[in-house]
Automatic annotation (TrEMBL), chain A:
<dbReference type="InterPro" id="IPR039771">
    <property type="entry name" value="Csl4"/>
</dbReference>
<dbReference type="InterPro" id="IPR012340">
    <property type="entry name" value="NA-bd_OB-fold"/>
</dbReference>
<feature type="domain" description="Exosome complex component N-terminal">
    <location>
        <begin position="7"/>
        <end position="42"/>
    </location>
</feature>
<dbReference type="Pfam" id="PF14382">
    <property type="entry name" value="ECR1_N"/>
</dbReference>
<dbReference type="GO" id="GO:0005730">
    <property type="term" value="C:nucleolus"/>
</dbReference>
<dbReference type="GO" id="GO:0000176">
    <property type="term" value="C:nuclear exosome (RNase complex)"/>
</dbReference>
<keyword id="KW-0963">Cytoplasm</keyword>
TrEMBL record, chain B:
<dbReference type="GO" id="GO:0071038">
    <property type="term" value="P:TRAMP-dependent tRNA surveillance pathway"/>
</dbReference>
<dbReference type="GO" id="GO:0035925">
    <property type="term" value="F:mRNA 3'-UTR AU-rich region binding"/>
</dbReference>
<dbReference type="GO" id="GO:0034473">
    <property type="term" value="P:U1 snRNA 3'-end processing"/>
</dbReference>
<keyword id="KW-0271">Exosome</keyword>
<dbReference type="GO" id="GO:0000177">
    <property type="term" value="C:cytoplasmic exosome (RNase complex)"/>
</dbReference>
<protein>
    <recommendedName>
        <fullName>Ribosomal RNA-processing protein 42</fullName>
    </recommendedName>
</protein>
<dbReference type="GO" id="GO:0016075">
    <property type="term" value="P:rRNA catabolic process"/>
</dbReference>
From TrEMBL, chain C:
<keyword id="KW-0271">Exosome</keyword>
<dbReference type="InterPro" id="IPR001247">
    <property type="entry name" value="ExoRNase_PH_dom1"/>
</dbReference>
<dbReference type="GO" id="GO:0005730">
    <property type="term" value="C:nucleolus"/>
</dbReference>
<dbReference type="GO" id="GO:0071051">
    <property type="term" value="P:poly(A)-dependent snoRNA 3'-end processing"/>
</dbReference>
<keyword id="KW-0539">Nucleus</keyword>
<dbReference type="InterPro" id="IPR050080">
    <property type="entry name" value="RNase_PH"/>
</dbReference>
<keyword id="KW-0963">Cytoplasm</keyword>
Amino acid sequence: MASLPPIAIPGQRLGPLSTYSAGPGTHVQQSFIYASIAGPVVADPAQPKSQTRPTLRVSRVISSKDQASSNPAVPAVMSKPRYNTLPAVDSIVLARVTRVQKRQATVSILVVVDESATQSQDQSRTASDNDNVASILTSAANPENHSSTDELRFQALIRKEDVRAVEKDRVVMDEMFRVGDIVRGSVISLGDQSFYYITTARNDLGVVMARSDAGNMMFPVSWKEMRDPVTGTGEQRKVARPF
Amino acid sequence: MSSQRQASSASQVPHLSPAELSYLYTSLSLPKNPIRPDGRSPTQFRPLSAETTILPGTNGSARIGFADGTQAIVGVKAEVEKTVLAADTLDSRSLAQHGDALNREGEEGSAAVSGQGEWVQMSIEIPGFRDDDALPVFLSEMMRESLVGSVAGGDVDGAKEMAGGLKGRLVINKRWHWRLSCFSPNLSHTPSPLLSLTTHLALLSTKLPKLKSTGEEDPFFDDDWAAAEYLYPRSNTSKSSLSAAPSYPVRPPVTLLVIAVGENVIFDPNREEIAVADAVLAISPGIPNSENVNMLGATAGPGEESGGQEEVEGVWRPRRGGVKRSVIARMVKTVLGKGGVGEEVLEGLEGVEVQ
Amino acid sequence: MADRRRINGPPGGTRPPVFASLQESSTGVANRAQRQRQPTELRKIFLKTGLIPTASGSSYLEFEPSASLAAARSNPKSLIPPSSALKLACTVHGPKPLPRSAAFSPNLVLTTHVKYAPFAARKRKGHIRDASERDLGVHLETALRGAIIAERWPKSGLDITLTIIEAEDDRWWGDAPDSHDASWGMMNVLAGCITAASAAIADAHIDCLDLVSGGVAALVSDDSSQSASSAPRLMLDIDPAEHRSILSACVVAYMPARDEITELWLKGDSSRAALDKNDGRTGHEALIDGAVDAARGANTVLAEAVRESIARSFA
C-alpha cells in the first residue's frame, strides 16, 4: 500500500496482481498491474462481500474525496472540456433531442454521468470529464446552436417502446419529447454502427430541461407535463422525477 | 501488410470469426513445426507462374500469378526528361564553376552523375482505395524506396555502369535523364510481395533504346529496338549455366514479407496469416552475402495475456504491444543470413527466363 | 495531384540569391555544420503538452538547434542557415463517433495525418499532402497502434494530426545528392512525431500500454578523403546536415517499460559498420540497438512532460 506512487504515467508498474485487482485506467501484464493513463492512483478498499483485494485504478478526474485532500483553494474546473468517457451499457447519460419521429427520437449524448461520482452525492461533480456541465446544458437548450457540434457527439436513439414502462403501445412520440429537450436516459445497448440505444422507462429518467413554445424554461408539474412560468401554458413531456 | 493494415485499423479481418483467428494463431505458433492452412512449410513460398514482356507498349513488363488466381501485372515505362536541378544544388553547382571553393567532388555537376530518387515513380492501384489513400501510397513508397535505395557494391565486376545504383543508370548526361514509371493496374487484391516480385521481373526485362548521341548533346537514340540495352545490364555468361555465375551483376531488389507468430518465423504469409501475426516485417535483401538490408518494419504486438487473472473476453482479442528486439533479429537473420531465404528467393528468380 | 484551389508559389525553392563572393569569403568547408556532440549524445528536446485548448490532447516538440546553427544565428555569415531543427505540433481529437458511413468497429479507429507546413523545409511543400507525408502518416499509425489499448474505445475514432513547423534537412544544403542520398530528414521527423503524438495521447487520457517514443540512429561516414579504410560509425540522433554521407539509418518506436518495438524503419546498407571485434552483433542489430537507446533518451523527456501535464491539470 505504501509503495503506491501518488501519480502514475502510462506504462508505470503499480503493483502485483496478487495484492490488488485491476480497475479502470490500468492494464495487466505478466501478473503486474500497470497504469495505462496518466493521473492520480487510487486504491479503492476491498468490499468484503464481493472482492478480496483492493481495486487499483488511475483516475481521470479529481473525485471529491481527492479534491478535499488537495488544495481546496484551487477550483476543480479544468481549463478545457474533455469528452473521453464513452457511454457503456447501464451508464446514465444526458442527451439533447435532435429529431423526433413517429417511432423513435434521435438524441445526441452530451454527458456521460460518472457513477462513482453519483454515489458521493455531489451534484456539481456528477459529470465525469465534462467539467462545465452547466454551460453545456444551457447552451444546448438554445435552438440556435444545434447541430454544429453534433458530429463530435455520440448519437443515440430512444425507441418508442423504450420511452416508458407502462402503456407502451399508447406512446405518442410528439407528446414525449421535443427537439432541444435535455433528456436523462440509461444506455441499454451499444447499438449498431451509428447509434446507441437509450431508455427512459424509469421514474428518474426522462426530460429534465425543456423550453416551451414561447422559449421559456419550463418546470415540471407532473410525470407527463411541464409548465411555462411566464405564460402558464402546459406542455406534454415524459418528465424525469426531480431529485 | 496490406490486409493487416486494413484490418487492424477498423476491425479484425472481416471474413474470419474470432474462433477461426484463434485457431489459426494456435496452429501457426506450434513450436518447431507450425501448421499453415495451405500445408506449406514456414519458409515455402506459394507456387507461382511468371512471364515477362507481356505488354507491348511498355519498356518492360511482367506478370506473376499464384495458383489461386491472384495475379499482379507491372509495366515499366521510360521517358526522357530534362534534368532540373533543385535550387539548392544549383547554387553549389554554379558556385563550383565560379570558384573552386566548393569543388568537393572534383567534378562539376555531381548531381547529374548520381541521379535523383524522384526519377523513379511507382503507382499502385488497389481496388477499393483511391490512388492517394494511405495504403497504396505506403506500398508504393516502400517499393520505390528499396528500388532507389539499392546501391551496387562497387566491387562487383561489371557493375561499373551501375555505379550509383538504379538512380545512376537513369542519367543520360548532365541535362537529360530517364524517368521511370512503374505502374500496376491491379486486378485483384494483390499482396505486396507478389507486387515486388513482379516489379523485379518487369525491371529486369526493361530495355532502354540505345543512345546514339554522345556527351552533352541532346539525346538521340537508335530506333532499332533490337539494339536496345537492358536497364539492368547483364554479363555475358551463357544463359544455360544458370546456377553458375549470376547473370546480373546488379539486380533490382525484392521485398519479402515475413511474419512472426509465437516462436515461428513464417514466410510469404497470406492475408489470414498476417491477420494473426505478432509482427510483420518487410525486408528487401540487397546483394546476397553482403547483408545490404533495406527494411521497413511494421510490427503489431503479441496477443499475449499473461497473469491469467484478467477477464477473458471471448476467444480472440486483438493484439497489443510491440515485439522484442530478439524476435526482429531472428526474423532478419532468417532472411539475410548465409543460405537464408532471401538468397534462395533471388536464386529462384534467376531461373525465370527473361527474353 | 495538382492543387487547383490555391495560387501556389513556384515549385522550386524560394530562397534569396546568394552571391559567390559572399560564399567564398567564408569558405564553403568552414560553413558546413559539424557535429559537436558525442556519438551517443542526444540533442535536447523541448516537449510540452496541452497547448491547444480545443483539442482533447496536444503537444509541442522542439529539438535543440545544432551548435553551428546557434553560432550562425548569433553571428550570421550567410543568409542561409547551416542546418535546421525539428519543430512540430501534435493535436489529438477524440474519442469521437465514427462517421455515419463507417462500419461498426469494436476498437478505436486511429487516423493519423502528418503535414509539413509549406515553409517547413527548404523546398516548399504544397498544401495537399504528398506521398512522403502520407507515408509518414502510415508509419506513425503503425507505431501508435501497438501502444494504444484499442478495445477500450468501441465505436469511436481518434484523429491525430501532426503539423511539422520546421523539418530536418535531408543533407547539408550545399551538398549535391549522392548515391547514398535518401530522405534521411524524414526519419528524424518520424521519431519526433512518435514522441510528440505519444505525449498528446497521454494528455488526452487515452489508454496506452506505455509511453512510446521514437529514436534514430545512423551509420555515417564523415571522411572527406574517400579512403576505403574509414569505416562508417554509429551515431545516435543524427542531424543529417552535419554529416557528409549517411549510409544507413533506423527509426524505432519503442516502449521502454515492456522493452518492445512497435515500429521499425531501417534503410540503407548497414553491413559496413565499424563494431568492436568482440561485438557479435551485425550492423543492423547495432543500428536497432542504437535507435532504441536514442528512444530511451527521448522517453525520459516524454515521461517528465506527461508528469508535468498531470501536475497542471490536477494541481
